[in-house]
Design brief:
- The complex is a heterodimer of chains A (302) and B (443).
- Chain A has 302 residues and is an all-alpha fold.
- Chain A is 75% helix and 0% strand.
- Chain A has two domains: 80 residues, no CATH class; 215 residues, Orthogonal Bundle (MetI-like fold).
- Chain A is globular and about 70 Å long.
- Chain A starts with a helix and ends with a helix.
- In chain B, the strands form four sheets. Chain B has a five-stranded mixed β-sheet, sandwiched between helices.
- Chain B is α/β, with parallel strands linked by helices and 443 residues long.
- The N terminus of chain B is likely disordered.
- Chain B folds into two domains: 174 residues, D-Maltodextrin-Binding Protein, domain 2 (3-Layer(aba) Sandwich); 197 residues, Periplasmic binding protein-like II (D-Maltodextrin-Binding Protein, domain 2, 3-Layer(aba) Sandwich), CATH 3.40.190.
- In chain B, a hairpin with a 2-residue loop joins strand 7 and strand 8.
- Classes of the chains: A mainly alpha (302), B alpha/beta (443).
- Chains A and B meet through helix 3, helix 7, helix 13, helix 14 and helix 15 of A and helix 1, helix 3, helix 10 and helix 11 of B.
Chain lengths: 302, 443
Amino acid sequence: MTATTASRASRTARRPAPARNGGIRESAVSRTIAMAVMVVATLYFLTPIWWLLVASTKTRADFTTTAPLWFADFALFDNLAALFDYRNAVFLRWLANSALYAGVGALFATLIAAMAGYAIAKYSFRGRETLFNVILGGVLVPATALALPLFLLFSQIGATNTIWAVFLPSLVSPFGVYLSRIYAAASVPDEIIEAARIDGAGEVRTFFTVATRMMAPALVTIFLFQFVAIWNNFFLPLIMLRDESLFPVTLGLYVWNTQVSQIPDIRALVIIGSLLSIIPLIITFLGLQRFWQSGLASGGLK
Amino acid sequence: MAISSVARVGAMAALTALALTACSTGGTDAPGASGGDCAPSDGPVTLTFTSWLPGVEEAVAIWNEENPDIQVEVQTGPNGNGGTYQNFFNQLEAGNAPDLGQIEFDAMPNFRVQDGLENIAACEGILEAESQFVDWTWSQVTFGEEDAVYAIPQDTGPMAMFYRADLFEAAGIAVPTTWEEYEAAARQIREEGGYINNFSQSDINAFAGLVWQAGGEWFSNDADGWTVDMTVGESAQVAEYWQRMIEDDLVAKYPPWTDEWNAAYNSGELWTWVSAVWGANTIASGAPDTAGNWAVAPMPQWEAGASAAGNWGGSTTAVLKGSDHPYEAAQFALWLNTDADALTAMNRTANIYPATIEGADLPVFDEGVEFYGGQKIYEVFAEAGDNVDPDFTWGPTMTQVYNDVADGFSGVLAGNGTLLDALAAGQESTIAALEAASIPVKE
């Protein structure tokens, strides 16, 4: 994620600033400084990942005895085998759980946010602004602050320590609603909706066949944000879940990490597990950034 | 990794906030210690048991096989201070706490003052079990109350001194048996270019273990409330001793549990570690190049010829308030922590060192350990366990105490103030925390 942000930012930095006729190119000095800042930032963000990658390939003994930023004996596959062997491959279960919570959760969250944002942007009804402002207020409330009230609520219906305790709260994304509204207002012209109505399309059909396509870049952004947010969500599962087979990968790794003083060997598993746990995030980002970038660019043209 | 550590800081902040609100609503008076009755339930029951011991399911599986009518379901989470204690408090508040939970000795008073524990003294066989456990552990689960047992001790962390036998021998330095000799040895080792030990800025419970060994006590309580005494008597003596070691550059200052710290042991820069029985695996794992060169001796003493030991760590299995089946839960807790097969299984998967007297005689503790040159190291720890002062009391807010004193100790290593100042500041904030939680404090 950091890599792509940085590279995109540096590309933007190189592009001439928008100017009237002819344009003024940035001076070599400011370009160099910008590049230097970017290089430092890139190193800053990539070094821990490099460390993680290198540490994952080391044997337990080499881990403490060799230079932390360079390879020693290559034991990546042994470490992987140990990770998948430990406690009946519970780690794979955690990865699958995270994929479920984050993938399906982000999909539904995007759908709900898109519908809500579209409705607020395109229909006028009494209390519309109040509703929107309340949702916007939700952006300001950190998810961590809601975890305990959610726990008490879920306790009342006996649903703690179930999939739903983590899944349902991740379906809401106030920021997604905000983004959808702004984007729907800007990119879905009223005339098109009128045309669809005249052609006989119902409201639902108009939304799914016309509006969502025009909103696609925003939807991808919402999906990405929500995917990352759910994947990294730690506090809610920590409070809600007690059954190891329901843990997402973040909580599982944290639990292992607290056991390191008891079982030092587990440390190697935490490290290789951390490496594996960021791979899905990287893949999702690289896979979707194409849509995302085109979205930002086309938005900018308007 | 960056993200998860941020999340952790956030979590910690939130946990602290929650702990404070939880305390302030908790009220002052822990309800009376009525043993009540403890009758078996009708029909088959299922108990839930939350523990962060890796692999505790194996021991539980043995029980489930033998007791088809009392099935135990294992639930897990991070270690106590890592979140499970806060979860217990949330669950107690919501009324869906597990029947049984793992609670460390130093967290027991916290659960007691917040009325989170069932008194299982009236349950069959519980009071009689006292004789099976190492002395000091039992007083930790009764709080000295009559007819009260709030948990069954599970494991302990008796302390001793791990030392590099090869280095001591090569340098012609005698292995210290008193703290005075330890300091003298430290000066000699410094001349050899090493450090005798590392002063840990964050393992405050280890420092408490040193105070415990010296016969000191940070907390005491009676009917009128709690007394906090971190800056007097033996506590001050221990603080001044290590202050001198720090000032004279006789101890290293690595943050513990880090790679640098492991590397310092692995390279032979650090010669001893005064630690608990479970530390045996820490060294073996962190300093693989030094295999065979280590040995274990009793802790250095304040008085020559004495044999006092401290304790660092250890937990209990408690029956949490609101359990529908305290009788069955108590039976399971007692079995889990006394049965030879269960203890062996937990030792294999989680390295626990049992709290029972017989536990020290399990075959696994009777073997020489290669990493320690074949020495039967557990004999040293068994003896240490017998010599731990039974009258040591933990306070009701140990997580806060550890955090605040650790802040002070880090400052000391950075050159600000003394250990005694840090303890004084810790005492002040502890009293404030107790008062904020409406727990009576005696001046």
